[in-house]
Specification:
It is a single chain. The chain has 166 residues and is an alpha+beta fold. The strands form 4 sheets. Strands 2, 3, 6, 7, 8 and 10 form a 6-stranded antiparallel β-sheet that branches. A two-stranded antiparallel sheet has the order 1-4.
């Protein structure tokens, strides 16, 4: 009983402060945990890759093949701990008009090119850079590969039109 008499009595104001402090610290910890779980979930999800096509592309006939050259920008807008690896690219053309779906041109990724200016011919030409190879895309490193797609043999381009025929 003597020990109780030696301790100073806590004021009502101090007890209220201690109770509010405990609850506010607990609430702040719960909010911090929720934010941490949300950030963890966002960083673990698979990145969403976006491809932006350029305004211009090149379509040419070379021997018995039709080639389609395009240099898109491939990027992801959201930060993620994972990176996206693009292993394959394909091109689908959906014709409008009388071409049946069985005669759609089929393009496959043939190679990656680089473009160089040739002063002697005053033209920009594409040169082989690599065979199709995986591209690593992350938020800090968008890619701008130059794809060359080739249509199957027997596909031709009619002069003066935008139609491809199989």
């Amino acid at each position: 009983m003597e020990d109780a008499a030696k301790k100073p009595a806590k004021s009502r104001r101090r007890r209220r402060f201690q109770a509010v402090h405990k609850w506010s610290a607990t609430a702040a910890a719960v909010v911090a945990l929720a934010i941490s779980l949300y950030n963890f979930a966002e960083l673990q999800r698979k990145p969403h890759v976006e491809m932006t096509l350029p305004h211009l592309f090149r379509l040419e006939k070379a021997g018995t093949e039709v080639r389609f050259n395009v240099q898109p920008t491939v990027a992801t807008r959201f930060k993620s701990e994972n990176v996206e690896v693009i292993r394959d690219a394909h091109l689908q053309l959906i014709p409008t008009g009388s071409i049946s779906s069985s005669k759609r041109p089929v393009f496959y990724w043939r190679e990656s090119d680089v473009w160089r200016y040739d002063a002697s011919t005053d033209s920009v030409n594409s040169y082989w850079s690599s065979d199709p190879a995986p591209l690593i895309v992350s938020q800090d490193k968008p890619q701008q590969p130059s794809f060359q797609f080739t249509a199957k043999a027997g596909c031709t381009r009619r002069a003066g039109t935008k139609d491809l025929l199989s």
